[in-house]
Amino acid sequence: MRTGTMDINAEGHLEIGGCDTIRLAKEYGTPLYILDEEAVVQNSREYLQSLQRLPRSQVVYAGKAFLTLGMCRIVDKLGLGLDVVSGGELYTALQAEFPAERIYFHGNNKSLFELESAIQAGVGRIVVDNRYELELLSQLAIKHHTQVSVLLRVTPGVEAHTHTYIQTGQEDSKFGVGLANDAALAMLKCIKALPNIDLKGVHCHIGSQIFDISCFKIAIDLMFDFIVQAAHHGIVVDELDLGGGLGIRYTEADDPVSITKFGHLLTETVLTACQQRSLTVPKIIIEPGRSLVGEAGTTIYEVGAIKDIPGIRKYASVDGGMGDNPRVALYQAQYHAIVANKPNETADFVYTIAGKCCESGDMLIHDGKLPFLEPGDILAILSTGAYNYSMASNYNLIPRLAVVTVYKGESELLVERESYADLVRLQKIPDRLCKKSVY
Ligand SMILES: Cc1ncc(COP(=O)(O)O)c(C=O)c1O
Question: CB 3.0-4.6 Å disulfide test: which of 40, 181, 188, 279 passes with 274?
């Protein structure tokens, strides 16, 4: 299995974006996140092209998947919008001079400070999640003598999980307002009644790492039924945001739908739904995160201790783990690895790849097929571009990794490796504990 621009070079090493990963390991150290910028560019173009038949559309990158100043620049230069979910993500986008009008601000409990920062920055859309937030927004809009453009987050009662989905009708979710009992309709009426809030449209997000894309069809139809219902009450919905969720390939067993096929399905479903209901096609917005950056990311580690428990299991420990990739411990996520210094060797052995955290559950791969491993080998774990760096922690006070972007044979840092000094930079020793005798 290979992702993005991966290749094997003349030296027999794994190469990404035209850069030799063994050289990257020497230059930047391990463990190291590598972002294949060309793969992000290609995925973005595929998304934009797949929606071309829609009269108006916008691809908005979900920054929660991976966001740094440099990533904001990539997203901007590709002409995409940016979905942020916290004051910190908003701050990062603004520091990178990302155009505020292309920012969508999400979240189920945005603070007053976050909402005010968003209004002052002039973000394009605030995705209203609940009534309390709507009240805060209305007060802030009045205070700042401004109009705030919003989408309402609706939970359509379709829940998707990788291979399956369920239609609950009554959505049990901490996000948004349900369609049941006309709750969402009541919220739309509330929004319309507020003079400083400008209702632009509605939003839904039905899940993540979705393989069975037929659930999007169901969600789209439900959302258009809702749009018709709103129209009967004189409420115009001009924008429909369908969220993110397309699945990616983590292992050889995964067979996700291509971005093109997904975009075409969305396009056809939307056009048909509008025709059937005699509606003008609204602006369609989508918010891919994982499918834009997931397969564009690879993490390289150095193999250290190898423990063979005869008849039971072979463990190969690496110099990172759940601190840089918590998804295995959190969601039993599965990954595929390549030995970057000998990618052509056949995978005749079975290893469990263990992280270095003091935690039995700190594993990166359970019983994966790999070539014979030795200390010093460089192990590349694929498809770590989404929800890895953004979910990383300093557990065990292990510094967070550096992130390097590779593009057409050149590599540059997006994030420097944390130092030990960084780990204690914000810490204090209370004066009381500086005295000689305390207790
Ligand atoms: C509102 C919203 N939009 C977009 C996304 C991105 O989803 P994905 O990374 O699966 O494409 C998420 C992910 O949780 C989300 O909650």
Answer: 279
Q: What average pLDDT does the chain have?
A: 96
7-35+294-424: CATH superfamily: Lyase, Ornithine Decarboxylase; Chain A, domain 1 (2.40.37.10)
The CATH T-level fold of domain 106-288 is: TIM Barrel (3.20.20)
Ligand 1, pocket residues at CB < 6 Å: 62, 65, 83, 106, 205, 208, 243-246, 287-291, 386
Strands 207-208 and 7-8: unpaired
**Model's pTM, two decimal places?**
0.97
Proportion of the chain above pLDDT 70, given as a percent: 97
Mark whether 358 is an active-site residue. Answer: yes
259 and 43 Cβ atoms separated by less than 8 Å: yes
**CB atoms inside a 10 Å sphere around CB 60:** 25
Start-end of CATH 3.20.20.10 domains in the chain: 106-288
- Written as six digits, the tokens of 17 are 């974006």
Hey, CA dihedral for 24, 28, 33, 37, is it positive or negative?
negative
| d(CA 307, ligand 1 centre) in Å | 39
Sheet containing 7-8: order of strands: 7-8, 14-16, 19-20
Sign of torsion over alpha carbons 44, 47, 48, 49: positive
How far, in Å, from the CA of 243 to the mean position of ligand 1? 6
What pLDDT, on a 0 to 100 scale, did the predictor assign at position 365?
A: 98
Q: Is-contact 305 355, C-beta < 8 A?
A: no
Which residue intervals of the chain bear CATH 2.40.37.10? 7-35+294-424
pLDDT bucket at 172, cuts 50 / 70 / 90: confident
For residue 399, give both structure tokens.
Answer: 């510094």
**Ligand 1 centroid distance, CA of 64 (Å):** 8
Asked if residue 200 lies in contact with residue 149, where contact means CB atoms within 8 angstroms, the answer is yes
